[in-house]
Amino acid sequence: MSNIALRCEGVTVSYGALKAIDNVSHAFQEGQVYGLIGPNGAGKTTLLNVLAGRQMRYSGQVYCGDQDISQHPAYERARMGIGRSFQIIKIFGEMTVAENLLIAAQSRRPGFQPFWISRRHDRKFREQLDSILELTGLTSYRDEIAGTLSYGLQRSLEMGVTLLPDPKILLLDEPLAGIGHHEIEAAMQLIGKISQGRTVLLIEHNMDAVMSLSNEIVVMNNGTVLACGTPASIRKDEAVRSIYLGEDDE
Ligand code: ATP
Description:
Layout lengths: L3 E12 L2 E12 L3 E5 L6 H9 L6 E6 L2 E2 L5 H6 L2 E4 L11 H11 L11 H17 L15 H12 L6 E5 L7 H15 L3 E5 L3 H7 L2 E6 L2 E6 L1 H6 L1 H8 L5
Parallel strand pairs: 3-8, 3-9, 6-7, 7-8
Antiparallel strand pairs: 1-2, 1-4, 4-5, 9-10
Helix pairs in contact: 3-4, 3-5
């Protein structure tokens, strides 16, 4: 049995009378990919925000390994190895690909001082940058202005930014959203590659993609976990099919 990387216990997020998340407890094992699915408004993004420390108004606990991180803000969780990507791409469109990665690497160092970078650190960052460029397939685009890249490549760049500084846990919010048909395959391959050796929570509406990338599917509905299990078992689950997948899904 592998270790637990991330765990939430009795998490509730309320907006007035609405419970976006209602007493959710779930454990995410090290090295596994979890597909988080459910209808619009089910609470998926809110749960990701709670885990990432971007939603601090909640009751319940969040643990990273054995450590209670419920009160840790997002930047501390990022430094503990929890990386988060967003539905809307967050890169600097007017900067080059390499500059985006360099800024991400430097800004996530403890004690970051934007106008002072030692030669030693600079060299280390540049090495890190080269490996991220290669991993994300962006080596030949390193000096291109990020905003001029195709949407799929911008997503790859955002993934590269999320991978700095080598998080052990990745929270990905709809990483395939907006990517055209011709770039989906490459994007899925990238997600598969970066998932190796990491714990990944993946919100994704592309059902084929999430089913093929995940070891386990967690289905949310009305702020609660309706079901969890292997992709095959979830595809067969009657309750899931009726609320989400649709009777015609195969
Ligand atoms: P989608 O697939 O559409 O992104 P989701 O499963 O990620 O949906 P959430 O975005 O987590 O769902 O939203 C859960 C519920 O909480 C929804 O009913 C949403 O309207 C509500 N909600 C989310 N953020 C807020 C907010 N800041 N203020 C009020 N209600 C909110």
